[in-house]
Each structure stands twice: as C-alpha cells, then as structure tokens.
Amino acid sequence: MTNEFLLEAINREFPGAIISSKDSFGMLTLEIKKEEIKKVIHHLKDSTLQIDFLTDICGVHYPEFPEKELAVVYHLHDMRTNYRLRLKAYSPKLNAEFDSLTDIYAGANWMERETYDFYGILFKGHPDLRVILNMEDIGYHPMLKEYALEDGTREDKDDAMFGR
Q1: Where is the NADH:ubiquinone oxidoreductase 30kDa subunit domain (predicted)?
Q2: What angle (nearest 5°) sits at the alpha carbon of residue 102, between those of residues 124 and 5?
Q3: In terms of DSSP bridges, do strands 18-24 and 27-32 run parallel, antiparallel, or are they unpaired?
C-alpha cells in the first residue's frame, strides 16, 4: 500500500473529510474533520484496506490556536504490510469531545482514558471514562499548557547555570 493509494481511497469514500495531508518521513499524516474521524477509522479497519491495529491515541495542546486548541492523534498500523498512518483531528478546548473508538478497537479503552486524564478531552460512548493515572481529586489536567513551568519565586536557583 502506498500513501497516494490510501489518500485517494479515503478521498473517494469520504469526500471533503480530509482537511490537509502531508508525508512526514514516509508516514502519511492526515488532518480529518472531527465529526468524520470515527467513520474514517472504521472504514480503514473494516474495508479491504484492513488497517487492523491501533498503535496509539494521544492528545496535544496548542494554546496559541483557539479554534484548534486540542488535538487527538491516532496512529494506525497495517500489520500484514507494515504500513503506518497518522490521523489528527482538532477541537476548541470548550467543545473537546470526540467519538470513542472502543467499539472498533478494544485497546482504545485505556488510551482514551489516559488522553482524558491528561488533557480533559471527552470521548462520547466510552464505557468507563475516568481518571486512570492521576489522583481523582487533582482538579486539573496536567498536560494542558496552562501553568508556569517554573516557580518564579525561587531564590536558590542561579539562572546563569541554565543558560539564561
């Protein structure tokens, strides 16, 4: 399977679903409309394309882009041909909700819980969406870039030692 073949196959089956595409070091990366992402992934698995393995689901926070502040990234793999694919879908932080893939890939369960835990992204239809790695009463999502990385009140740190 080639990147061009897969891109054409998705465009033919879901016209207008692909927002952008690029080839990153030989891996096809597609930005898919949020409302189409589950349909596209379901088609990739159950059609003759048979992309049968969900390698990873993760979140990304882009605070500088309010309309695309949160992203969910899906890494898929065809185990027979060793073909890999990356799909991305974006959402504003206020409406960060995606369809769950647990009914397509059982392994999505823990990956979606981790993404929810660290980024606050909700997955509609998830059977048990709750905190998995953080304390239940933490009150925030630690991977969101909303907090200062360093404590500005520290006096015991010499910035010259850190190249500043």
Answers
A1: 31-151
A2: 105
A3: antiparallel
